[in-house]
Design brief:
alpha+beta; 6-stranded mixed β-sheet; about 20% strand
């Protein structure tokens, strides 16, 4: 075995929340010979905070999907002392043409959730399933878009939730299950420490600070190949040895491996990263990533509506959602966050920063003509999750052709903190 190669009990691929939770479970269970192989320069994955313009912004994950019935993420958020605020989904201002048909959308969405729930129950009981898009079921439930206002309202229910339109989603992507499990109240992380405070709490559970001093965390160590039946495995790696080849030539032989990489990464790299016969490899194409990009502006003074959310749906243009003071911090009084999703987000990240800035400001000017000038813009920040090599998107979603049978080959997820 070359001198720069090594043998470990467990290799964890990916240093996001799932990878760190796996390491935590191993450490608290008494197993210390593990490594976390993270391809970027930091731990945390899509749980990322940034100090920007005098405040903390959560550029990735920033809210909790329900807080009832022991939601492990919410329980950890409270255990680590993060301040939260329940999102007020009744505080909206909507710009668009046509009647605001919120009640019709609510009925259609409830009907879709109930339909999806019945379809899942049928699959669980009989193994039979249907392939159907969320759009088809919404139409069968009586909802169809007839105006730009309808598009804005539908965006609020689906594109914002999933990072895809109902045309690009399976009915099985319905959020009914997390809501049934953990409730529909969604707390926003409003702590001045951001979601980074959660990551520090998670790491403190099993690694003494400074965490960067622990050599088991291997940053800037992307894995390019995983082999499950390698003839190169040394005897001490055991009968189930996994060979992991890293960029730069180093190889790690592990008695066991835990793969927590983003689904977007798996889709881009599975020909080399995942070995032939790896569970789920043949159904990767049926799933997708939700696309969700944020833009932050700090202005010298407020000029927008006094609501928690502002929906902009001018006919023929992408829907935008604006969120004043997005993390409810005193230091964000002049901050306005814009959100763009789906294919529009993919097109948006193809612009240069000047084009992005001017496009978003032009949309604001259409809603608030004469209320601000370029000189009123103090600072700007853009995310880029669509092209980020640690994610290639925001989160995993069921593609339009997926079924409840397709995820079954995938190994179960790592335990939550």
């Amino acid at each position: 075995m070359p001198s720069n190669d090594e043998v470990v009990d467990v290799a964890i691929v990916g240093g996001g929340v799932a990878g760190l939770s796996a390491a935590r479970s191993l450490a608290l269970g008494g197993l210390d010979n593990w490594v976390v192989l993270e391809g970027s320069e930091r731990l945390g994955g899509r749980a990322r905070s940034k100090r920007w313009s005098g405040s903390t912004i959560n550029t990735g994950a920033y809210y909790v999907s329900g807080k009832r019935n022991g939601n492990p993420f919410y329980e950890a958020i409270k255990r680590y002392g993060l301040r939260t605020r329940d999102i007020d989904y009744n505080s909206w201002t909507t710009y668009g043409e046509g009647e605001e048909r919120w009640e019709d959308m609510e009925k259609g969405s409830d009907c879709l959730d109930e339909t999806a729930h019945r379809m899942w129950e049928e699959f669980d009981a009989t193994g039979r399933y249907q392939v159907a898009t969320a759009r088809r079921v919404l139409q069968e439930c009586g909802w169809d878009m007839t105006s730009s206002m309808d598009r804005a309202i539908e965006w609020n229910y689906y594109d914002w939730e999933y990072g895809r339109t109902p045309d690009d989603l399976s009915v099985y992507a319905s959020p009914a299950y997390s809501y049934h499990d953990f409730g529909s109240v969604q707390p926003l992380i409003s702590d001045e420490g951001g979601i980074a405070k959660f990551l520090i709490g998670l790491l403190n559970d099993f690694v003494p600070p400074p965490h960067s001093a622990d050599t088991r965390f291997r940053l800037n160590s992307p894995v390019n190949t995983i082999l499950t039946h390698s003839t190169r495995c040394p005897t001490e790696a055991g009968p189930n040895c996994v060979e992991l080849r890293l960029n730069g030539g180093k190889t790690i032989f592990a008695k066991h491996a835990i793969l927590t990489a983003s689904f977007g990464v798996l889709q881009r790299t599975h020909q080399t990263l995942l070995p032939q016969g790896f569970p789920g490899r043949d159904v990767l194409h049926k799933f997708t990533m939700g696309y969700f990009e944020k833009v932050y502006f700090r202005f010298r003074q407020r000029f927008w509506d006094d609501t928690d959310f502002i929906l902009d749906s001018n006919a023929g243009k992408p829907v935008l959602m604006w969120h004043p003071n997005p993390h409810q911090q005193q230091s964000q009084e002049g901050v306005l966050q814009g959100t763009i999703t789906g294919k529009d987000a993919k097109n948006f990240v193809g612009m240069d920063d000047t084009q992005k800035k001017m496009y978003m400001l032009s949309r604001l000017h259409e809603m608030y003509p004469g209320k601000f000038t370029l000189d009123d813009v103090v600072d700007t920040y853009f995310t880029n999750w669509v092209e980020s090599p640690i994610s290639y998107g925001a989160w995993f979603e069921h593609g339009p052709d997926s079924s409840p049978a397709d995820p079954s080959p995938f190994p179960p997820p790592s335990p939550s903190p």
